Amino acid sequence: MINVKYFFLILSLSFYWSCANRNVIKTENGVLIELNARTSGKTKKRMLLEVISPTVIKMAVSCSDSILTVPSLIVRDRDKVRHAHSVKIEQESVSLSTDSLFISVNRSSGEISYYDQKKRLLLTAKDNDLIPYENEYTGKRHHVIQHFHWKQEEALYGLGQHLHGELNLRNMEIELVQENTKVSVPFLLSSEGYGILWDNYSRTVYKDVADSSYLWSDVGEKVQYYFIKGNSCDEIISQNRQLTGEVPMYPRWALGYMQSRNRYSSAEELLGVVRKQRKLKVPLDVIILDYYHWDDQGFGSFVFDEETFPDPEEMINTLHEEYHCKLLVSVWPSFTPGIKNWELLNSKGYLLDIMTAFNSQVYDAFNPDAVGLYYQLLSKSYLYKGVDGWWFDATEPEDWRDLIQSKCYLGAAAKYLNTYSYFSIKGVYERQVRESDKRVFVLTRSGFTGQQQFGTTVWSGDVDATFEELKRQIPAGLNFCMSGLPFWTTDIGGYKGGDPTDSTYQELFTRWFQYGTFCPIFRSHGRRYPGDRSGENEIWSYGEETQKILSKFIELRYRLLPYIYSLSAQVTFNGFTLMRALPFDFIHDSKTHNITDQFMFGHEFLVCPITESGAIRRRVYLPKGCQWFDFWTGNAYAGGQEIEADAPIEKMPLFVKSGSIIPMGPVMQYSTEQIPDPIKLHVYPGTNASFTLYEDENEHFNYKNGQFQKIPILYNEAEKLLIIGESEGSYPECLKKRTFQIVLAGKLDKIVTNKTKTVTHTVLYEGKKIVVRL
Questions:
Q1: Least confidently predicted of 32-41, 79-88, 266-275, 717-726
Q2: Distance between CA atoms of 169 and 186, rounded to whole angstroms?
């Protein structure tokens, strides 16, 4: 007979597990857990863990099952593909496993632990909460908060562009709102091999202090984030873009030099600048027309002033046909009350109830119909006249404190605060690509997760013209690129001030220009003095000696276009990042985790800007694990050490990693003047190297249909062989024959240094494999 005591024990345990299991439901791609009441207050909370991929887990907590399944605004819908996983339900915990991750949830505390496949702890997400509140702008809502426990030596990066001057975000508090010079992107990248995409659009606070580390958002019905595991920064960011949108190819001209100032006051003045640059034979691809080209007709009038720009189509045609130069125009999201376009949008209820600078009213970018009308007006005034790209200014839009008090098409604007630029650019981009087969370029002052899919480059806003500001720009741009958006730039020289005739400012402009040469987008702009704040800002404005230096760096940028354009293809096809904080490539060298004034450009270049007035040398840390070659002299240095690098005014310290192949073309006056030929392959030995040269027809979307060519290039260190592999693919006008000139590191290049050099080998390439012994 069964012992009665054991019978009742078995019965009670069966009843307990039956009740416990009713609080856990296995879903198609994860698990739904009702958290114990003692951890979630009077209202029970439900946690959903969903396997997006073997390395990406969505975590959501809410008080309602229906809220848990509300789609994200920034994470793209995808087919519900079931990924292999297992769920294990125990008395105190629930675990979810894939072939790459093991996640354990403590059912008593709600704490989540994320482990890799080897059970190494990556992150602990501690308690979270939804805190009810009510105000006149949002009504009844919740604040949401998620606490994290980060490891003591862990470094964190990202969150967009902030001018705090640091790279590593540990022990900091950062407010995530959109402002001029502040671009907030809710993505954290960890040195431990994971990223966190915080899925909330309202004002958010990141705080990391000794006893409390968390993300807080003002408005949200649920706590929601995506945990992304990867073996490298590139892999994590690539998965981020798979969730939120891949990056389209830019036209080749967008990677050349862009000239701008505040502002060109007439067609004659603008054309004169381009004409002079062509006469000087200094490369140029784009000139930019800033605001008030409409004179006094009001913001949002979308017109060229009849007196100063009497025939804009003729001006644009001259730029295109005679000077082979593209035009960007400044466009704002605001409308001066009383003008024709304001009357039109206002009659349809397409304006937000807030005023911005210049006494203008912002349109409702959250309303698809409003964006549609906005695009129609832009197209008629600019695109159909031949304008090549957009400069969307003030897309925060300006003061967020006004925006949170407004209502928009989606509801309380406070809930969607940080996504105004996202929706505005999205609406324009998607309509433009439906109408045209040309690639889209957008320069704008604000951005958000996912905006990279809309042809967006963000610039850092109206920053000061000082060395201190230049120094802050470097980590600001690096953290922005570590947030998943790869294209970023600054106003070279700073926006606010600077007298081109002042020798001290000439030094700052030169140093900023050298740094700008190695930003993803290369663009000069500023509000120069003396005069009416529209002082000259062209390379000849800074004196003859400075002009020579600036010209050489523009020429260097154009010589590097085969390299840069190939890497831009990697951005599109492989989720690559062009401007890279040192942890991208040297995560295992802890000395790189906090370096704010050096970065990688591609895998190959180590860029070391000068950020101190009067400096003619600087300390440079050469990351360990490879040798480093001085780009200017060819001298080699062991990695893992600091050196004193020479930096006279005409030179910025620049190094190339051993095991690199750098393709460099001839200097051209504009990026598409010819298909680069011959190309010099600069080989930096010491270890094996590879590079894939990419080319297409430069301006259309035909690359999506396979119209491009790739040429794989390998270097074998042991056998000293350079292998130019068989070409893959083709496109119209693709070269059938071309010349490669091979240069070994240590050989000096005439265009770079004005010294003689010898090309070790010259080969004629016809698309078939060539092996060269060096």
A1: 32-41
A2: 13
